[in-house]
Specification:
InterPro entries: ClpP/crotonase-like_dom_sf (IPR029045), Enoyl-CoA_hydra/iso (IPR001753). This is Enoyl-CoA hydratase. The structure is a single chain. The chain is built from ten helices and nine strands. By secondary structure, the protein is an alpha/beta fold. A six-stranded mixed beta sheet has the order 1-2-3-4-6-9, sandwiched between helices. A three-stranded mixed beta sheet has the order 5-7-8. α2 runs antiparallel to α9. The protein is globular.
């Protein structure tokens, strides 16, 4: 019996398609998935045939975020929870979460996220580094980790994506933002019927792929650098430090990096998914 890949990769003409492939777990992310995903992002970035990269997910949901039934940080044997857990966890998350996402954002090729169903907590970290987000009309977005004693996921782009007041509302209440609202707020480029999602995404990818690769890279660099001049990357790094303070508080109180109430988190996700 062989283990099925947690991330699939296919190149169609000049378009690379990356697919999260843990449908039974609603594409909840463990360390193996994240490492596979990073390797495939880098493979697509290095492939000269590829001009556009698409990210999607198998199954009923795009991603239910970190797999809190098997937290990625618990798989890191180098962390000594009786030694310097805050320092070790900081180093680990700086690489695997903030580091990976920042690296994906700056791949010099246009990237498109195709989102359907739930996109929760760390699921947001997978789509926010992408240049374009197209959502099915059943997509919904949430970051309920305040209930875990944390102020938001590690790649804290909430304010940039939703605006300050809507970001606070979502974080404070653990509520969902639907696809139509996400489009109005500017986080989503376009909302389409679920059955049309793949065709719409591929159509846009094909249109973009007709442009010169160097021009696309320079356009992306110009927009990203403009955001960074406005403080984008610095704000992510500052919020990441506060995220680690949340971990430190949880470790001091419980000896664990997060407060976990699985039953409450299942209620938040509506369908019993992992968040």
């Amino acid at each position: 019996m062989t283990n099925e890949a947690k991330v699939l990769y296919d190149v169609q003409d000049n378009i690379a398609v990356i697919t999260l492939n843990r449908p039974k777990q609603r594409n909840a992310q463990d360390l193996d998935l994240l490492n596979e995903l990073d390797a495939i992002w880098m493979q697509a970035a290095a492939d000269k045939q590829v001009k556009v990269i698409v990210l999607n997910g198998n199954g009923p949901h795009f991603s239910a975020g970190h797999d809190i039934t098997k937290p990625a940080m618990d798989q890191v044997t180098s962390i000594d929870w009786d030694g310097e857990p805050v320092a070790d966890l900081y180093e680990y998350e700086a690489e695997v979460f903030l580091g990976y996402c920042s690296k994906w954002r700056n791949i010099p090729k246009p990237t498109i996220a195709a989102v359907h169903g739930a996109c929760i907590a760390a699921g947001l970290m997978l789509i926010w580094p992408c240049d374009i987000i197209i959502a099915a009309d059943n997509a919904r977005f949430s970051d309920p980790v305040v209930a875990m004693g944390i102020g938001g996921v590690e790649y804290h782009a909430h304010t940039w994506e939703f605006g300050a007041r809507k970001a606070k509302e979502m974080l404070f209440t653990s509520s969902f933002i639907d696809a139509a609202t996400a489009e109005k707020l500017g986080m989503v480029n376009k909302v389409v019927a679920l059955d049309d999602l793949n065709a719409e995404v591929m159509s846009m990818a094909e249109t973009i792929a007709k442009q010169p690769a160097f021009g696309l890279a320079m356009a992306k660099r110009a927009v990203n650098r403009t955001q960074d001049i406005q403080g984008y990357q610095n704000s992510l790094e500052a919020a990441f430090d506060m995220h680690q303070l949340g971990h430190g508080n949880c470790i001091a109180a419980t000896g664990k990096p997060i407060f976990v109430n699985l039953e409450e988190m299942k209620k938040v996700t509506k369908d019993g998914g992992k968040s």
